[in-house]
Amino acid sequence: MSAYGERVVEDAARQAPPGGAAPARMLLRLVLPAAAVGVAASLVFVGVSVAGEQLQRLLWGPLPEALGVGRYSVLWVFVVLVATGVAVGLIVWKVPGHAGPDPATLGLNAPVMPPAVLPGLVLATASMLAGGPSLGPENPVIAVNVGLAAWLGGRFLPRAQGALWPALAESATIGALFGTPVAAALVISEALAGRPMRGRLWDNLFAPLTAAACGAATTELVFHPSLDLGLPPMGRPHGKDLLAAVVIASVAAVLGMCAVYAFPHVHRAFGRLGHPMLALPAGGVVLGALGALGGPLTLFKGLSETAELAHHPAGWSAGQFATMAVVKLAALLFAASCGFRGGRIFPAVFVGTALGLCAHALVPAVDPTLGVVTGVLGMLLAVTRQGWVSLFTAAALVASPAVITVLCIASLPAWLLVTGRPQMQLREDGTAIR
After folding, report:
1. Which of 7, 144, 375, 422 is disulfide-compatible with 355, CB 3.0–4.6 A?
2. Which residues are paired to 136 by β-bridges?
3. If DSSP states are collapsed to H, E and C, what string results for 59-80?
């Protein structure tokens, strides 16, 4: 998130005098551009998501039925995932801009890409979402919105600071993805921490938060997303709950770090193939094998599949939950390493949910809601290294204020296990970022 924080700080520094508040007229001038970016970013997110879902329904419904093949049979899982690797490989190889930079080098921040790159990135993302690789839309959609905002903003409002548009686009997309501006506010605050900042925090947050609010509101109106898994609210926590929370979050963080440490090695192995038409189909083969092993719930970005797990916490054994968690994490690792365009947050939520329900199945005294939120917390801390985003996402999964205190306590040992260690993001030379 360093590039993101620098953009926000750079723009804020131009809006406020040292140590003082920005004049209201400066902030008011940002409202309309921020609102426009928020609405547009949400519509891009919804458009890419809907396109992916419609193609997914075709690939995993009428098409296999017309061919007389089981929609989730081993054969069809292999065929679709390998075909998805071929399709995305062709896009990366032939489409102008090659669908952007190596996705292993990107987090929630995104460089400003030329407009010619963006259509290929949209095609690669929609194809990935439909075909079943275990990645979410967040990283490429943020990149598309940043590129569009910088291009259109520079054309229609050339006097505005160039750093303004990427900051607004990233905030708006995060608000649209999570369905609330709170997520964007937390990400911005974390990015600003420890950096030189002129003016007050809320002056710096004003325009990005406006964009995030408009993005979230637009998504709510046209797409109706929800992170709430419908789990029963947790009662007043007791000592055993705090112990369980600490253990589950720590175990999830350790498991997530296994994938983080493997990430540069797996990425390097695919890189040795030397061409996207080799690396991506090879990744499809691996993902097909994992999908056949883990079953249909371990395919796709994982949000609706997470809800299905949560709706039936007693529907699988501890061994089955553990298998799904490990398979999904491996699928996330390979999909992120071989070149598929996508983000890691939503698959990590599935992994954490499966781990939490595995703990409940092993020890029925563990509240399933507690298991899910702490499993998600630990996994997200390892995969994203974003403390506020991890806490917010875990808490947003359930309508239970009682989990907030438990999550804050559980985050402390989990954070000690991940901080200062490699992240699941690489530099351009293939080395891990710490």
Report:
1. 375
2. 343
3. HCCHHHHHCCCCCCCHHHHHHH
